[in-house]
Amino acid sequence: MNNKNDDRDTSSKWTQWINDGITNEYINYYDYNEFQNITCIGNGGFGDVYRANWENSNTVVALKSLKNDDDFMKKIAL
């Protein structure tokens, strides 16, 4: 059975993995403030999907908000 220390270690590992992905530019990060008219259009097992206008280009985009879940993190790491 996992204890809280194991959970923190795992969470820290995945947080570092995401930060490395952003730093190395294989994961795109955009500040929430760059988007307007954000509306939830769906949700699923891994997170929520939103429709928004990207302020820089007035382009309509879909945003995915990911859940902080170990199973999800293992799947995207594959």
From TrEMBL:
Domain (Protein kinase): residue spans on this chain: 35-78
PROSITE patterns assigned: PROTEIN_KINASE_ATP (PS00107), PROTEIN_KINASE_DOM (PS50011)
Q: Which UniProt keywords apply?
A: ATP-binding, Nucleotide-binding
> InterPro entries this protein is in?
Kinase-like_dom_sf, Prot_kinase_dom, Protein_kinase_ATP_BS
Q: Which domain of life does the UniProt lineage start with? A: Eukaryota
Locate the coiled-coil region(s) and give their ranges: none
Spans through the membrane? none
Q: Supply the name of the protein.
A: Protein kinase domain-containing protein
Species this chain originates from: Rhizophagus irregularis (strain DAOM 197198w)
